[in-house]
Every structure is written in C-alpha cells, then in structure tokens.
Amino acid sequence: DMIEATRLVGVNRIFSINLIINSKDEVIKIFCGDIIKAHRKSCDYLDKTYRVRVKSKADLIIVSAGGYPTDVNFIQTHKSIENASYTLKDRGKMVVVAECKDGIGSDVFLKWFDYKSPQEMESALRKEFTVYGNTAMCSLIKARRFDIYLYSTLESHFSGIVRKIALIPVKNLQGDLQRIIKGLPENPVVYIIPKGYSLLPTVSPASSRSARRAKTETSSTKDYSGVQREGLLFPVAYSQVVWNA
Questions:
Q1: DSSP secondary structure letter of residue 113
Q2: Which of 62, 140, 143, 217 is spaced 20 to 30 Å from 164 by Cα?
Q3: What are phi and psi of 19, to 5 degrees?
Q4: Spatial distance between the Cα atoms of 82 and 77, rounded to a whole number of angstroms
Q5: For the chain, what is the radius of gyration of the CA atoms?
Q6: How far apart (Å, rounded) are the C-alpha atoms in residues 155 and 62?
Q7: Number of H helices and number of E strands within the chain?
Q8: How do residues 121-135 score in pLDDT, each as one tens digit?
C-alpha cells in the first residue's frame, strides 16, 4: 500500500531513508535513495538479521513483548503476538507476557470488539477503514485460531477487558502455565521468545543449521549461538520448561 501511494505522487520525486534499529533502539543500518530499491534492500537486511527459521510449528509459544516501550499497551503488544503466531499450530496455545500499563492504547480500538466476528469487522472496515479497526480484526482472527493467554495489568484498568478482546486472562503465571503445559500433547514443540516484537520466526522445511539444532531436546539455559537473533528464540523440551514468576 505504501509503495502504491508513492506511485500516485511520483516515485522519482521521493528520496527515501530507511533505518534499521536493534532492540536497544540503536540505528545499525541505513539504506537511502530510490524509494523502492532502498526499501527492498532494507527488507532483505531486516530478514537476515531478525528472521529465525525453525523446522516445525509449536504446540505452545511463550512470548514476551519485551518490556517498555514495546509492551506499553495492548496495541503495541499485538505486534509480538502477530510475529509469534506464524510458528504456532492451529488451536495451539500462546502465553503472552506484557505489562500494558497504559491499557489498551485506544478507546477507538476497543469499540471494534462490539462486532461479534471478524467478518462483521471486515464489512465495517470496507465501509470506513481505520488502522485501529484493522489491528482489532487481525487480533480477533488470531484469538479465534489459537488459545491466547495474556498475563498483564489490563484487568486493573477495566474488569473483563481481556475477555472482551477475546483473549484469556492469566492471574497466576506460574500456576496457569503449569496447567497449560499439562494439557499439551505428548512430546510437544515449545518455543520461548523473550522479545517477540523483534523476531520474525518462520517455518522452513529446508532447515538451516540453526533449525536442525532447534529440533533437538534442549534447555533454555544453554547457548544457542546458531539460533539467536535480535529477538532470541529458545526451543525447549516441555519437561524442561521452567518459568519463575
């Protein structure tokens, strides 16, 4: 959409500057020049830096939004949920850890959950598109596809707000996590992602050395130099999952 918009004003008139930042908000690469070519090169670099390839989808993903400011509200937290969802099995379980100290992030966003289905949301969006509405629809689609548990402070802002956005509230992280683990199938695939906002996990049948290493039974305390990227991804055997609340 952004590229199409530039064509409406004339691509030759635009000089683009694309910044790549790391988890510390430091600029690590700059691509400038032609808006399409520079953008594609920046995307290629981003893909090499932040994408982690794994061999199979997970039964359970435990993902943190990474702390402030990337978990300041639910709208920011949704970016981590989106990234993690690409390697989660249908009806898989996702445990999301995010403070959300500023609440949802927009009253406009919350009103979209008055619609009862993604189809109703889509119909309304086609009549009047809004960014918050699109985010709400994407969130609801994932909530219907997976079981998403949210450990946050959202309930302190408004009782029942987590279920209103179709997620499952977590009050006792340690206890609820153990219960979720017990409900997993035999020999489940589990991933832990400490910084979900800066990781692009992808299922790749033609696995790299990193993905081959990821399929072995491992512990989150070991060094995964071949697996780690900016966001970090730890594949673990379910019996070794330990979470200190």
A1: G
A2: 62
A3: -105, 135
A4: 9
A5: 19
A6: 20
A7: 10, 10
A8: 999 999 999 999 999
Q: Tell me the C-alpha distance between 126 and 134, whole Å.
A: 10
Strands of 22-103, DSSP E:
27-34, 51-54, 58-64, 88-97
pTM: 0.80
DSSP 21-38: E-TTS-EEEEEEEEHHHH
137-175, pLDDT tens digit by residue?
999 999 999 999 999 999 998 899 999 999 999 999 999
Task: Judge whether 196 and 65 are in contact, CB under 8 Å.
Answer: yes
User: Among candidates 99, 97, 91, 80, which has minimal Cα distance to 243?
Assistant: 97
14: which 2 tokens?
A: 């635009």
Query: With contact defined as beta carbons under 8 Å apart, do 39 and 18 qualify?
Result: yes
**Whether residue 69 has a cis bond before it, omega within 30° of 0:** yes
Q: Which two tokens stand for residue 229?
A: 């990227």
> Cβ atoms within 10 A of the Cβ of 25, count?
7
